[in-house]
Amino acid sequence: MRLVWFLAGALILSMGYSPTAAHQDAPLKVKLQRVYKAGESQDYTFVIEFDEGESVKLEGAFNLTIQKLADGGSAEIVEKVTKLKVTFGGESLDEQELPEPETLTYGPNGLPTELTDEYDLMSVLSYLGGWLPNTEVELGGTYEFKWIPGRTSIRAEGKATLIATGRLFEERVAKIEMEISCAGDADMGSSKTALTSYLNLETGKIVRIVGTSDLSAGGETATIKFDFKKVRS
User: Fold this and answer.
1) CA–CA separation, 210 vs 231, rounded Å?
2) Radius of gyration, CA atoms only, the chain
3) 1-35, pLDDT tens digit by residue?
4) From CA 146, how far away is CA 162, in angstroms rounded?
5) Helical (H) or strand (E) element with 180
6) Which helix (H) or strand (E) is 31 found in, with range?
7) Which residues lie below 8 Å from residue 212, measured CB to CB, with a gap of 6+?
């Protein structure tokens, strides 16, 4: 979503995971796919940290609501930032204006099929860990990652490994580790991201994404730490 782009513009889990991959009842293969359900609504929290000479911390919440299903396993999803707090150098800044809700079409691999030119390499961090190959993958198996959304120069490629399946609180999840390289036009620069995703094993919905991204642009480099986490009902 445009979340990270908007937040950056304002300035310029511990969750119990119980792996079961080694258990006898664990499947040898699982199908990693995104299954959308009309009307489904999910809240998430986020924490994003980086350094601009002073430490910057962005905290808040957003909601994803499936507005309607579309052909080919796609769906129209409304993205809405609901809370935002910015801390710069240890001091909280004034209350931030929230962006307008945005409706995007998500494909069967779990990510938007198109983005606008307002997006940059920071703004896609909340998306990358939700990508799924829409096919069966062996436990421990590695598969290629490729996401090239329309209407933008952004291109993301890399590899992902299905580490295990397990239970994260009340739901079964797939634990996936990804290494992704992103690039756009000359102004955007490039990034290298390493992350771990926990995705619902039945629907592919994001449960948690945590990682770091090294972003290089305009001759400068920044390391961004991020954590997107489902709000449990």
Assistant:
1) 15
2) 17
3) 554 444 444 443 333 456 654 344 555 899 999 99
4) 16
5) strand 171-183
6) strand 29-32
7) 193, 194, 195, 223, 224, 225, 226
pLDDT digits (tens, 9 = 90+) for 181-199: 999 998 899 999 999 999 9
Using the 8-state DSSP alphabet, how is residue 71 labeled?
Answer: G
Q: How far is CA 42 from the centre of its chain?
A: 14
Q: CB-based contacts of 193: which residues, under 8 Å, 6+ apart?
A: 125, 128, 158, 178, 179, 180, 181, 182, 211, 212, 213, 214
Contact predicate 138/102, CB 8 Å = no
| Beta strands 190-200 and 206-217, pairing class | antiparallel
For residue 6, which amino acid is it?
A: F
AA identity, residue 47: V
Task: Using alpha carbons only, give the angle 110, 36, 142 rounded to the nearest 5 degrees.
Answer: 35
The Cα 7–Cα 48 span in angstroms is: 9
Structure tokens at 232: 């449990």
Amino acid identity at 34? R
Q: Provide the token pair at 84.
A: 């935002």
